[in-house]
Each structure stands twice: as structure tokens, then as C-alpha cells.
Amino acid sequence: MKRTQVAIIGGGPAGMLLSHMLHLDGIDSVVIERQPRDHVLKRIRAGVLEYGTVKLMHEVGLGERMERHAHDGSWIAWENRQPFLIDTRKHTGKHMWSFGQTAITEELYRVRERDGGRVIDEAQQVTLHDLDSERPWVGFEKDGEAQRLECNYVAGCDGQHGVSRNSIPKDLLRTFERAYPFGWLGIMSETPPLKEIMYAHHSRGFALASQRNPMLSRYYIQCDLATDLAEWPDERFWEELKRRFPPDIADRIVTGPSIEKSVAPLRSFVAEPMSYGRLFLAGDAAHIVPPTGAKGLNLAVSDVFYLHRALVAQFKKSDSRYLERYSETALRRVWNAERLSWQLMRLMHVFPDDDDFTRRINLNEFDHLQASPAAQAALAEQYVGMPFEA
Ligand code: APR
Ligand code: PHB
User: Fold this and answer.
1) Ligand 2 first shell, C-beta below 6 A
2) DSSP 165
3) Is the bond into 214 cis (omega within 30 degrees of 0)?
4) Mutate to test the pocket of ligand 1, among 40, 284, 305, 306 (most ligand atoms within 8 A of CB)
5) CATH code, residues 6-68+98-176+267-351
6) 212 CA closest ligand 2 atom index
7) Cβ(274)–Cβ(326) under 8 Å?
8) CB under 8 Å, gap of 24 or more: what pairs does 130-136 form?
9) What is d(CA 390, CA 375) in angstroms, rounded to the nearest whole number?
């Protein structure tokens, strides 16, 4: 029989960061991950980090070894209009950073290993028990043997398809959801990216130029949900991508063979509350944002910031106030990111059933953003990330 203070379900960025931060405060945890290590380390996801995310990572000793690139914000280009910069440096004094989530996951596994952290990979049939008691426990199978891990608290960091959220009684959980009627076709290519991160609106659909490092580019185009990758050889992708950017920018895009190509569905989702008894959800387990605005990883980090603070107060000072308020506090920031990413989805994409009126409203929103420093400042403040609540 095993015991720990915090059982963490899921070894993605949320779970591993929480485990690391608890360790710095002398709180013991065990991470229980369903997938093999290789699989976890290879996942490709969004790559823009808010100022506060990078600051927190530095404060907890992460990131020195990671390659990253500071940006003054991101650009928005609109068909037949001059592009403009969401200038986070000018309006907030803060930078954004681009760097791959893959690098963050690697760094987290490296430091947990260095510090003797316990991560159980390939744990099957994970189940949560007695969450509404003072002695919750986690059941799972490892190498065909049934195991039981007792703990004081359970952190549900097992992503959108994990067991944690579904362990909350259905009548206590409320979910909010929006699916979008298109996807993003994305590629990764070992070519020098554009200097800037640039979102493009075009009557043929949205496009995005992003990056991972000086020789790794990430590009996306809005696509049909039924898109068949076989019909999208690299040449067709590059041609379509370039058509959606202003010609002078399209000319600067360096093309080359793709090393990855996939279609991502786009969804907004929130589960409330983010806690039940001694279970606390963090990251994708509780919410999904569509990728415009790149808030996914940043939200996982802000949940972990609040949850870590609450667990430290509980273990060190028997102060339960932060834990009691965890869901409410985390959800305010979650909804802020949900609103921003939804707004950017709405603004930047071509929705199949949009009428001419809606298109004009969208165009005017762009014109207003371009003309109004106040509107730009409001967008920049949210894009760079609102500060964590005291
Ligand atoms: N038991 C144990 N582990 C599980 C289970 C389960 N039943 N189900 C899922 N997991 C694991 C997954 O294999 C994954 O490694 O939980 C982990 C969840 O990690 P993520 O999906 O990366 O979620 P999170 O850590 O919240 O990170 C959020 O990732 O999806 C992106 O854009 C998102 O950047 C954001 C970040
Ligand atoms: C990415 O680099 O994958 C990315 C960047 C910005 C976004 C979304 C995704 O808004």
C-alpha cells in the first residue's frame, strides 16, 4: 500500500508543473500517467506563452535551458487592409514568448527526475475513490497488478478525456460548450519562420504563421472538418497559405517539406465547479479553449498557480480558505480566456453561415482595432495575460 500527500492524475504540463512546485515546498506527490513516456514527450501543441507564464516558470527554476523567442505581440492581417501589431510591449510593458510545449514537457520531466519525483507511467484503469471523505484513494493497474495509492488530495490533471472530471457526480457538474463548424489544418516544417507571429483573415478563410525555433515553423489554415490529409500535399498547403496572407508577407514565407501535418477540431468547453470534495481539476481536465489566442497552456499554468498556493496554505498553515475558493478563482481567469479566444475565433474566421451583415461587423471590428489605441490596449492586455489574482 502506498501513500502520498497529493495524487496527481495525468503527467501533462499541468500535472508535472504542479508536482514540481509542490516539491519546492516540501509537499510529496505521485503523478499517475496513462501513456508511455515517449508518447507524452512527443505531443505537439500550441506555442505562445503569456508574460506571467514565463515569469512563473522562471520563479520555479524552469526554462533557463529552453530556447525561446520574445515578441512584442502578434500581428493581425486583413485582406486588403494594412496589418497591425497587437503591441503588448507598448500597451502593457510586457513581452510574449514563443516556444514549443514539447520543450516545456521535456524540461518538466527532466527536473522531476533530477529531484527524485515519482511518476508512474502506463498506469491503466485509473479510478478515484472516497473523494468526499478525508481519506481519498486512487486505484490503478500497473504491469497487470492492481495498486492502491492513498492521499490527502487528488489533483485531476488528466486532460479532456481523463477520469477525474467524470468522477464528479453528474448532478453537481455543469458543462458549457461550443463547437466550431471548421478545423485548423496545421503543419510543422523545418524552415525559418517569419519574424513575427501573424494571424490572417481572408475571404478564403483564416491563416496563422507561428514558430517554435529559428529553424522550425508552424502554420495553420482554416479548413473543412471533413478535410482528408491525402488531398493536401505540401505544395497545395503552401499555395493556399500564401493566398491568405497579404502578398508582401506571403513572399517572405519560406516553404519546405512538412514534418507533421494534422487537422485539429476547435472547441470551447468549461466544466463547473473545478472541485468536488478533495478532488481539484486543473488544465484541460476542466476546460478547452479554441487555439486563437493560444491560451490553453497558459490556463493550465494559472490553474496550477492557484492550486499550488491553496495546497501549500492547507498543508503548511491548515488554512483552507484558498482551497475553498479555488474553483471560483480559477474559473474567473478561465472565462476571461474563453471569452477572448471565442472573440478572436469570431473575428478572424469565415463562418459558413455568416451573412453580409456579420461580415461587415467583423470588418468594422478590425478597422476599429486598427484605428483605436484604446481598443488595441484592451486587446493587448488580455492577449499578454491578465495578472494572477491575489
Ligand atoms: N489516467 C491517467 N492519465 C491520464 C488519463 C487517465 N485516465 N487520461 C489522460 N491522462 C493523461 C494524458 O495521457 C496526458 O498525458 O493526462 C495528461 C493530460 O495532459 P494534457 O492533455 O496535456 O493536459 P494538461 O496537462 O491540462 O495541459 C494543458 O495541453 O492540451 C494542451 O493546449 C493545452 O496547452 C494546454 C495543455
Ligand atoms: C501556435 O504556434 O501553435 C499557435 C500560435 C498562436 C495561436 C495559436 C497557436 O493563437
Assistant:
1) 46-48, 197, 208, 210, 218, 291-294
2) G
3) no
4) 284
5) 3.50.50.60
6) 2
7) yes
8) 131/167, 131/276, 131/277, 131/278, 131/279, 132/276, 132/277, 132/278, 133/277, 133/278, 134/278, 136/7, 136/277, 136/278, 136/279
9) 26
pLDDT in tens, 232-289: 999 999 999 999 999 999 999 999 999 999 999 999 999 999 999 999 999 999 999 9
| Residue of 20, 71, 94, 287 marked catalytic | 71
* Spatial CA neighbour of 168 closest among 308, 283, 285: 285
- The domain spans of the chain are 6-68+98-176+267-351
Say if pTM beats, i.e. exceeds, 0.85: yes
d(CA 138, CA 1): 11
Calculate how far, in angstroms, residue 40's C-alpha sits from the geometric centre of ligand 1.
Answer: 9
Ligand nearest to the CA of 149: 1
